[in-house]
Amino acid sequence: MLNRSRSRLIYLHYSHILSNRQLLIWLKNDPDITISNNNHQFFLPSLNLSPNQKMKLQQYLSGQMNVECEQMNQDKQLKIMTILDDDYPDRLKEIHDPPAVLYLKGDAGKLAHPYTLGVVGARKADSYTLLCLKKILPPLIERNFCIISGMALGADGMAHTLSLEGHSIGVLGSGFNHIYPPSHQYLYTQMITKQLLVTEYPPYLKPQKHFFPMRNRIISGISKGILVTQAALKSGSMITVDRALEEGRDVFAVPGPIFSELSSGTNHLIKQGASPVTEAADIINEWQIP
User: Fold this and answer.
1) CA dihedral (150, 155, 161, 167) positive or negative
2) Which residues pair with 117 in a beta bridge?
3) Mean pLDDT by 10-residue block, N- to C-terminus, for the chain (290 residues)?
4) Are residues 141 and 171 in contact, defined by beta-carbon separation less than 8 angstroms?
5) Burial, 217: exposed, middle or buried (Cβ in 10 Å; 0-12, 13-18, 19+)?
6) Euclidean distance between CA atoms 195 and 58, whole angstroms
7) Residue 131: how many other CB atoms lie within 10 Å
8) Paired sense of beta strands 196-199 and 101-106, if any
9) Residues 215, 189: contact at Cβ < 8 Å?
10) Tell me: domain 104-287, CATH 3.40.50.740, correct?
11) In angstroms, how far is the first alpha carbon of the chain from the final one?
12) Would you say the pTM of this structure is higher than 0.85?
């Protein structure tokens, strides 16, 4: 029965008609995910579907599994994990809106790593971020930390590149058929070969602006703590920090020059109580790792 529910969840998720919240509501009301034109109307009030969603969902449920979905199932590199699975990460399941379905390429076992540190920072991060990460990350990687970031330009790419020989998880804001940014083609390939890439978006979905804040909740969700390198006061990195705090994660921040806009966010976080980090020992000692 679980296999049937799991397949139906993936089928619904692939359509991208329902939001993640709506899928979770469906699961709560109907754990078997009964898909039928005769009974799905019952769930429409609780799902709060728009007229357009109702029309698309009715069309989708009355049809057969489309060719694209079949092709996805034939991708030997692609793994699919659902919130129904036993190996779904416990930390991620605890957050307010855990992704119902995850698409993975690489070593899925990294999701169970005990020491996961999310690294976030500006896309326009400069040499200061690189110098700081070169000092802070290597000792953590030697201690078997798993470094998590968002595969974006700047701090994300730096963090993933520095941790390629250790453990790293990249969380995407698009489906696997669309590498973003395109300049990370080589890093993308290396991450699949040596590490792990994760996304909640079906392979065919292109990156969209509102996908990235949603991606950020996964970064913080699978992390034990978040390290912020450089970030302006109003930035995506600060949104990730907000999610991390909501989820009860530790927040670490690299102090920076007081005249730098890129350090205004991190310096503010430290004033608000985030743990300042100038070396790996600051995180190791905070977590009492022997």
Assistant:
1) negative
2) 147, 225
3) 83 93 92 68 73 85 60 80 97 96 98 97 96 98 98 98 98 97 97 98 95 95 97 92 93 97 96 97 95
4) no
5) buried
6) 39
7) 10
8) antiparallel
9) no
10) no
11) 44
12) yes
